[in-house]
Amino acid sequence: MKKISIFLVTATATLYFNNAYAQETPQDSAKVSSIDQIVITGNSNPKKKIESSTAISTFTAKEIQKQNPISAAALLQRVPGFAVETSGGEVGNNLFARGIPSAGAYEFVQVQEDGLPVFEDGALQFANADNFFRVDNTVSRLEALRGGSGSIYATNSPGGLINFITKEGTNDFKGTAKIETSTYGLMRTDLNLGGALVKDKLFFNVGGFYRSDDGIRKTGFKANNGGQIRMNLKYVFDKGYVKVYYKKLDDRNTFFLPIPLVQNGNKLKGFDGFDPNYGTYSYRAISQLNIPQAGGGFFSRNLEDGIHPKVDVLGAEFKYDLGNNFSVLNKTRYTNINMNYTGIFPAGGPKTASEFAKDMGMTNYQYSLVSNGAVVNPAYVQKLGFWAIDKKMDNFVNDLQFNYKFDKGNVTAGFYKSNWKSQQYWNWSNILTTATDRPELLNLVDPSLSPSAVGYSKTYNGVTDMTFLQRNTQTQGSLNDLYVNLDYNVTDALSLNGGIRYSHDYYKGSFANTTTANLDNSGLTTDGTHSFATTTADDNMSVLGNKFTYWNYEIDKVSFTLAANYKINRENAVYARFSNGFRSPNEEAYYNYFSNPNPDKPLKSVSTNQLEVGYKYYSRTFDVAVIPFYSSLKNLSFTDVFSDGRSENIFANTRNFGVEIEGYARLLNNVLEVAFNGTFQNPKYKNLEAGSLLEGNTVRRMPKIYFNIAPAVNITKSWRAYVSMNYYGKRFQDELNVQTLPSFTEFGAGMSYQLGKIRFAVDGTNIFNTIGITEGDPRAGSPTGDGIIMARPIMGAAARASITLDF
């Protein structure tokens, strides 16, 4: 409630601020009319939105500024057809397109910057695409395509394309500077500058941000700290242009995992000792890990490092008019990523002190605090995974296109080449803590035994399982794709589109074989006196061997799409599209299969068929798009990694019927604006391997209904206030449809005031402190239903205040 009060007081004060100095120029309150918008994503050439036979949502820089999203995932919640889980924090979130289920990440869509992937595969283990991208003032606009032609213009993207297009300089020097603070210790600065070094010839743009905050959930340390810089230089000549650019991202973010809650049907409440809106197991008192290794040396990790990617991107773009209606466009990019990933992953739910001791085979037990040795009697204890992953990744990609324009349309032919590599190392341990939102490390011993007796302790400085899992793996991809796309205007009103892509992709990798060992005869001691024979914490330590298993996998697949768009008049259009695409097996699927090969269950690509029809109406005062769709998937694999390090593949077919709605209304002479989007769908399992009992069940983690509505009032030419409502329907955590994830509604609100070129704004999120869970605990196996559950709720109420200067 304190956060809500701060927000309301701030907003009220802003509302009654003296506006005597307001300028006559109104702030940019009206959305850029969709009737005039040009889109490039999923199209061979730029075309008006109403003439594009795709389901595509667009957001300009001004629209993004007004929404002021707390993360890239929060912005994508405004796109129909995309079910987005935002509870992980700024990064590491999940997106599901049109009811296509997965283990998470961005598995069936591709996230792009300026038409090339942020990284070729956006769903590598612990490397979600949004780990490597941040929304700041260098973004010119966002184009989000669902289904449709995604599989023609990118790999592994049957669900769609998310294309963030960056700003370029113009003849007019322009800049934007922004400072922002919040109720959770945020200090952020954004800056963007662009202009001409040589008029009409040489242009530049440079910008970025730096941010530090404590996090909405209370970690006891800086939850987010870092920033990025992005710059480009573009030279324009008579027949084309050449552009070079560079991006540096060095950011550290805490990743939030499930916490304990109490569920009774559709009702949720906090677990005793745990604040559901602001609590987290990722806390400073358990942030340090330092343990000896069976192979020698020590392994140390600091939870405060969180998800810490260091990303360097260097790219170039070249376009040239070859004459006779021929042109060539080439885009190339090299990306290098060095990421340390540290997170706290619950290993099941809380247990009573006696229950946990019994599970450890103890009839006599004693708990004590690691920090000071004090004997304690906690009501509940929690086993937590302290997971450390290091990933070194690089990606070279080149997209070469030739385009020919003729009287009735154009044809584009291209060759796409991408080489990528991911080298990763895992080192996982389990720790024992109190089941509270400011957890403390616990030791557990058998007081009936002597401290020098074998098996006296079940822990080593709070660690129950020292390095129980290690992995050293490498995955490489080599993609060689040819594609052709044809646009043909039958009449001024009727246009046809067809595209085909041939993918000859090759994947290979290796992983180190492991053995187990302990430290009993290592000569090391647990406390300077007693040997490791006195504890069981080291009994099953993983040791990397010097032998490797090598594997390879080849894909030869064809994707295609056919569409027609009929423009009834300037404001109305209808279209229909059929598309066929695929997704190659993900990284964990390769590891799981080749480490335990099963000829009866060979690896297969996921194939997709999608049919969509749409109606679009765009005018100066009202926009609406209604798009019914159907999708079916074959060989869909659910590749989950459990808290004990095991993983599994379950294969299924799915089908989904749905409809997407998106619109924007300007009423009462632009005094009232209403933006809305929604998705209604019914995704079901078909032919699930696990058995006929699951036939017809609802696909896990997929809501049948979710929508967002955001009315705004332009009180004066300078004052603007808005409210947003985000509804997320009931879902099931599991294929069995046992654990219900109740529906929830999250409200936001804000206000802005334009004083000349300065914009003051206050934005509040989850202002009513709703407990809304986006996922249960997918690493815990089958759920149990009501009672104490593990789930990942959205963040509690928070408010941000910002000042932006345009010059």
> For the record, what CATH class of the domain at 259-308 and 342-394 and 421-806 applies?
Mainly Beta
User: What distance separates the N and C termini?
Assistant: 38 Å
CATH A-level architecture of the domain at 259-308 and 342-394 and 421-806: Beta Barrel
Continuous helix count:
6
Reported for the largest beta sheet, the result is: 22 strands, antiparallel, barrel
Question: What characteristic shape results from the CA principal axes?
Answer: globular
InterPro entries: Beta-barrel_TonB, Beta-barrel_TonB_sf, Plug_dom, Plug_dom_sf, TonB-dep_rcpt-like
Domain TonB-dependent receptor-like beta-barrel: 274-763
Subcellular location: Cell outer membrane
Protein name: TonB-dependent receptor
What's the SSE blueprint?
Layout: H1 2-15, E1 38-39, E2 47-48, E3 55-60, H2 61-67, H3 72-76, E4 82-85, E5 94-97, E6 109-113, E7 116-117, E8 123-124, E9 127-128, E10 139-146, H4 150-153, E11 160-166, E12 174-182, E13 187-198, E14 202-213, E15 224-237, E16 240-253, E17 259-264, E18 267-270, E19 288-292, E20 298-302, E21 307-323, E22 326-346, E23 351-352, H5 353-359, E24 366-369, E25 375-376, E26 380-406, E27 409-434, E28 442-445, E29 463-489, E30 494-517, E31 541-567, E32 572-583, H6 587-595, E33 606-618, E34 622-641, E35 647-667, E36 672-681, E37 684-686, E38 705-713, E39 719-728, E40 731-732, E41 740-741, E42 744-755, E43 758-765, E44 773-775, E45 787-793, E46 798-806
Parallel strand pairs: 6-11
Antiparallel strand pairs: 1-2, 3-10, 4-5, 6-7, 8-9, 10-11, 12-13, 12-46, 13-14, 14-15, 15-16, 16-21, 17-18, 17-45, 19-20, 21-22, 22-26, 23-26, 24-25, 24-28, 26-27, 27-29, 29-30, 30-31, 31-32, 32-33, 33-34, 34-35, 35-36, 35-37, 36-38, 38-39, 39-42, 40-41, 42-43, 43-46, 44-45
